[in-house]
Amino acid sequence: EPFLIGDSMTGGYGNGPDILHDCTIAVEKGEIAVIVGPNGAGKSTAMKAVFGMLNLRSGAVRLDGEDITALTPQARVAKGMGFVPQTQNIFTSMTVEENLEMGAFIRTDDISDTMAQVYDLFPILKEKRNQPAGELSGGQRQQVAVGRALMTKPKVLMLDEPTAGVSPIVMDELFDRIIEVARAGITILMVEQNARQALEIADKGYVLVQGANRFTDTGKALLADP
Ligand code: ADP
Ligand code: ADP
């Protein structure tokens, strides 16, 4: 069975209608999986469901063979999930380093090695570590958000539109960093509105339409026959 699986997820917000209809997202260990699709298709909702921010009416979420459907988001973090939501919630008046330290809140061990790894991955964050995060550019703030999620040493990193609102050059750079994260052995599941560029780096792609899987294939196959 795949490492992370949102299995036949059906559910919606509160008492509202189903947004997800039998939606299945399955990610192998070490893979980059990308969810694309039109606005309002339910991409963010699928991510929230996998992370435990949406109650499923049916279906399940499993990580590394374990059923985690009933777990809170925080408990999922403890199981090895990291999530970078679409809305940047970095602390603008805290320094870059303080933001990274906040990311490690669930850890009780020494975080300096992980901090060094994040700084290796994002040298600009090391350079600006003592500056308030609010002084950074949009792309650099995204790096803070990704770096902070990495501070928990996740097995799976989930990203909701990491390149939203950044320039094409910064987008390419962020994708390069995400590839490096995957090479370091961290499984990636992300939502992207820049479908073409994202599918280029994807091992697997999901096209969601109206809360259901329309196409599921390798990134390359989806690019060849969109
Ligand atoms: P996408 O990420 O593909 O743009 P979303 O998952 O954000 O789509 O939204 C899918 C549908 O769910 C939309 O109809 C949207 O209005 C609805 N929706 C999203 N968030 C909420 C919410 N917090 N409460 C109620 N409906 C929501
Ligand atoms: P997305 O790009 O994911 O579709 P939106 O801009 O639609 O995001 O939504 C921004 C925020 O508003 C999200 O937190 C989402 O959950 C919430 N939201 C979206 N649609 C609705 C809705 N119909 N009712 C309540 N909240 C919503």
From TrEMBL:
Listed InterPro entries: AAA+_ATPase, ABC_transporter-like_ATP-bd, BCAA_Transport_ATP-bd_LivF, P-loop_NTPase
Tagged with keyword tRNA processing: no
SMART domains for the chain: AAA
GO molecular function: ATP binding; ATP hydrolysis activity; branched-chain amino acid transmembrane transporter activity
Gene3D superfamilies hit by this protein: P-loop containing nucleotide triphosphate hydrolases (3.40.50.300)
One biological process term in Gene Ontology: L-amino acid transport
Residue ranges annotated for the ABC transporter domain, each copy included: 4-226
UniProt-recorded name of the protein: High-affinity branched-chain amino acid transport ATP-binding protein LivF
Organism per entry: Pseudoruegeria aquimaris
